[in-house]
Amino acid sequence: MIYIQILIMIIFIVAALFAIASVFNAISVLLQVKKGNLDELEKKTVSDSLVYTMFVLLFLHLIQFILGMIVNFMPDSQFHYYPIISGGLPFREVMGNSPWHFEALFFDFLIFSIIYFFRKRKYRD
Question: Which UniProt keywords apply (predicted)?
Fold first, then answer.
């Protein structure tokens, strides 16, 4: 049992490091756009990444909303649904295991950084 808790803790630490790094990555990319350091193709890559990020986040939040509606409006349900992606620190933790959740702001930055990374690689190759 202790090994599972250690594994979960390591997973959360790695996810937290990626999330924090993605915040700085997104801010640096947006500052480069603002300063005009990027050419037109790179600006298009950033704007495409923002559009794809918005679609992914809309889809994920819609699924989360529908699951919450289904589970919480079922009569005599023994299960209570907690959203995995939650904003505003509802459980007093940015990332935690009681219940398992991920802060929405860091998740948004993480999704943007992942999409931007793959979009940038597409044009680089």
Answer: Membrane, Transmembrane, Transmembrane helix
Q: Which long-range contacts (CB under 8 A, 24 or more apart) does 26-31 make?
A: 26/109, 26/112, 26/113, 26/116, 29/116
Residues 15-59: pLDDT tens digits? 878 888 888 888 888 898 889 888 888 888 889 999 999 999 999
Region of 76 on the Ramachandran plot (φ > 0 left; ψ -120 to 50 alpha; else beta)? left
CB 109 within 8 A of CB 22: yes
Report the alpha-carbon distance of residue 107 to residue 93 in Å, rounded.
14
Residues 6+ apart with CB under 8 A from 116: 25, 26, 29, 45, 46, 49
The residues spanned by each domain of the chain are 2-124
φ and ψ of 91, to 5 deg: -110, 20
Prediction pTM value: 0.75
Partners of residue 97 on adjacent β-strands: 100
